Amino acid sequence: MGLTERGRYHKNPATTEVLGTVPDLGVEETRVAIDAAGAAFKSWSKTTAKQRHDVLKKFYDLMLENTEDLSRIITLENGKTLAEAKSEHIYSASFLEWFAEEAVRVYGEVIPSPFPDIRNITIKQPVGVCSLLTPWNFPSAMITRKLAPALAAGCTVVIKPPAETPFSALALVELANRAGVPPGVINVVTTDKNVKEVGDELAQHKVVKKVSFTGSTNVAKLLMQRASSTLKKVSLEAGGNSPFIVFDDADIDKAVEGAIVSKFRASGQTCVCANRIYVQSSIYAEFASRLADKVDKFKIGNGLDEGVTHGPLIHERAIEKVQRHVEDACSKGAEILVGGKRATDLPGTFFQPTVLSNVSNDTQIMDEETFGPVAALIKFETENEVIDICNSSDVGLAGYFFSRDVGRVWKVAEALELGMIGVNTGLISQACIPFGGVKESGLGREGGPHGIDEYMETKFIAFGGLAGK
């Protein structure tokens, strides 16, 4: 790809120091990248599944060999602690391992024919050039979750990493090159000022046959509209508003632990974060007290510093949204148990980990993803009541609940309108599961045995003239 002199400075959100620059590319360079992917598809799609397996396994091994460097890059550009960055890195690498094995297990079918001279089979073939548009909250894992199945299927890709975290993407591509991925198979378009134009081109260009996106619901809808111009395949993981329910028969200590890992991982900046925490009235006070005590012991700061448990938010806009949500909740009767404001004693974009009690159902937090370290506690009385409230949302990505009643577990899990549910756990993400939502949280699934199918087409072949004498 041709690089221009246009560039953008990228800063560490914890320290505000400049990390480096990347090109601010536009539509012209995007078309060059798509053309390169189209040319490379002709040969990459002809490689055997075993060959692609071997490349992906080598890619995986290289990621593990470079764990320290790649994890440090995640912390520097995203802000999450080094421990969290290492967890993301291992999660990121696991997609390469999983889909290396899936590459050699893509099977067709034999379908019995009603006609004696016809034999029916199906085969699966790579869809073609794929546009991969990824978010900043998991700058490595959100790329490999799309890239690994695409490569395993025999597709070529153009990646548009987020403007906030481009370096993890570039580091991954460097390792892919070392692993033997041929030129043109993976292409990266870094951009900031031209995000809309680049996104439109990646969704509309005729050579592109599939669009995979992770981000907000509004942008997902726009990309789906653009992709419809040529009826491309789409996979969209859009916004969430995850409920977290604690029933009166739950193990409260485990529920508190689950709430912490779900709500405060990456300082609350994940798409499957608990956003609405519903606690049954009889245990509400005890749960709120225990959660507040735990959160009060958090230490915010530079993710590379010893003892730091939580890093900064990604930018000023994130701080402004979290502050708006807290002020709105408090104006409608919520009480701040811990935190509640920006941390002004640190140079970066830090917000104090916060627990709000007595949050009402008419607050902004109930309708919008906070994407920050704010645990909003809401009291409820009955099982049916909380199910109805949870299902009132337009989105349905993930949710969690804690209960030791087996009958309740099955009833609630089946009743909640969500794509993914954690029962007695606040952590659900794994390479081997089908990740995705329902309603306005998107289309398709990433990961698991379903993930590679998103990058393949099923072709039917009928063989005639085969009847015996």
3D architecture notes:
This is Succinate-semialdehyde dehydrogenase. Keywords: Oxidoreductase. This protein is an alpha/beta fold and 469 residues long. It folds into two domains: 7-238 and 437-461, Aldehyde Dehydrogenase, Chain A, domain 1, CATH 3.40.605; 243-423, Aldehyde Dehydrogenase, Chain A, domain 2. The protein is built from 14 helices and 20 strands. It has a seven-stranded mixed beta sheet with strand order 12-13-14-11-10-16-17, with helices on both faces. The protein has a six-stranded mixed beta sheet with strand order 7-6-5-8-9-19, with helices on both faces. The mean pLDDT is 96.
Shape: globular
Q: Estimate percent helicity.
A: 25-40%
Q: Helix count?
A: 14
* Average pLDDT, all residues: 96
Unreliable stretches (pLDDT < 50, length at least 5) are none
Indicate how many domains the architecture comprises.
Answer: 2
Tell me about the largest β-sheet. Answer: 7 strands, mixed
Briefly, what CATH class of the largest domain?
Alpha Beta
Distance between termini? Answer: 60 Å
CATH fold description of the largest domain:
Aldehyde Dehydrogenase, Chain A, domain 1
Report the CATH superfamily of the largest domain: Aldehyde Dehydrogenase, Chain A, domain 1
Beta-strand percentage range: 15-25%
Radius of gyration: 23 Å
Number of strands: 20
Structural class: alpha/beta
Strand order of the largest sheet: 12-13-14-11-10-16-17
CATH architectural grouping of the largest domain = 3-Layer(aba) Sandwich
GO molecular function: succinate-semialdehyde dehydrogenase (NAD+) activity; succinate-semialdehyde dehydrogenase (NADP+) activity
Keywords: Oxidoreductase
Protein name: Succinate-semialdehyde dehydrogenase
Enzyme class: oxidoreductase
